[in-house]
Amino acid sequence: MESQNINKRSNWLLVDAILGPMNAGDFGAVSNGAFAALADRVRAAIESADPSILGDVTEGTEALVRDMFKAAPAATRKAIQGHGVDPATFAAYLLGQASFAQLLAARVQDRRPSAEFMSTFSDERFSGYLRALLREPMNGTRLQEEIGEQDATVSRKMARLRQLGIVTARKEGTRVVNALTPAARAMADHLKLSPLPEGTALPTKREKLIEGRKENLPAQYHSLLQFGGR
Q: What is the separation of C-alpha 70 from the centre of its chain, rounded to a whole number of angstroms?
């Protein structure tokens, strides 16, 4: 079975839950939960920063539909093809399409960005990371070099960004590469966030502190403060 081959590669165990009863002619035994799981797979693939995952899921669902078509009764196949089918059967086919679209939309809605997701984009602690990853995916060592923070700090912040659904991570050999999720890229685009230019030195905490003190002093003392802060 074509979809079985594809989905073994993708570890889609839910295929048997759908095709098994259909191939046996027991269509009522197909669980609604199987299609909920399918919707979750599609939703996760859409959100993934790795395009190969979405391609794999697209290929898998196309093969699943072909196998379901072969196992379906003749009247259902006619409804899909639009050939002389009675209105009730065709209406059931259309309702099935609309139901799955609604199920997928509900699954995506459950994963909608939280208030913290959105507020992170204006949080100074994370802005450098977001702008760096907006330019390109990076591993932890590269982020250390770009942002100028310690390894433990980078790891902690990446873990938080992954938890919020802003960053996704994938393994490339022994390295873990961080990338913005599609939802995060869409938010950055909406906020007109610009990528961090390569080679840009972000201000250190000490430099930020000195700059803040300057704002509260007359201009003639600025150079003195800078000298004393170095």
A: 33
- Tell me the mean pLDDT in the region 48-60: 80
**CA angle centred on 148, ends 146 and 149, rounded to 5°:** 120
Q: At what angle do helices 124-135 and 140-147 cross, to 10 degrees?
A: 120
Domain boundaries, the chain: 2-110, 116-199, 203-230
Report how far residue 7's alpha carbon sits from residue 38's, in angstroms, rounded to the nearest whole number. 12
Residues in the chain: 230
Q: What class, spelled out in words, does domain 116-199 have in CATH?
A: mainly alpha
pLDDT at residue 196, rounded to an integer: 87
In Å, how far are 89, 90, 209 from 79, measured between CA atoms? 7, 5, 70
- CB of 107 closer than 8 Å to CB of 43: yes
**Which of 151, 159, 160, 150 is closest to 119 using CA atoms?**
160
The C-alpha atoms of residue 91 and residue 184 are separated, in whole angstroms, by 39
Q: Evaluate if residue 227 carries a pLDDT over 50.
A: no
Query: Which pair of structure tokens corresponds to residue 99?
Result: 């139901």
3-state class of 39 per DSSP? Answer: helix
* CA 53 to each of CA 8, 38, 46, 98, 219: distance values in angstroms, whole numbers, following the listed order: 14, 14, 8, 25, 56
3-state secondary structure (DSSP) of residue 175: strand
**Residues 145 and 109 sit within 8 Å (Cβ to Cβ):** no
